[in-house]
Please model this.
Amino acid sequence: MNVKFNNRDPVYVQVVRYFKEQIAKGFFEPGQEIPSRRELAHRLKINPNTAQRAYKEMEEQGLIFTEGNLPSRITKDEGVLKKVRKELIMEAVETFVHSVRTINVPLEEVLYIVKEYYEKADYVRGNTRD
Model:
């Protein structure tokens, strides 16, 4: 686990975001067991109470579930998983759109440039699209 903490946001919020990103990228599979709270705190070198708060937040959001004394797991709820992905995409789009609007780029030009770059990035990474 490689989390780079910033000084702006509470650490537990950054831990939750890390888990969301890993879920969206497919690094955490639905139903996958995740580290215990203590293990996470040790790995990330954070206070165990902070890890506990992050897990509590993730449980409240439905990202993880814990049954009895068993280890916590990533949700299997497809609706929650789709919501996480959409949330991350919307954050990125909002930031991008705000930046582009400040320099008054017409929408058609933005869409053309984004499509061109997106396809070029796929080609560079060796991905092909059907």
Summary: The mean pLDDT is 91. The first strand starts at residue 64 and ends at 65.
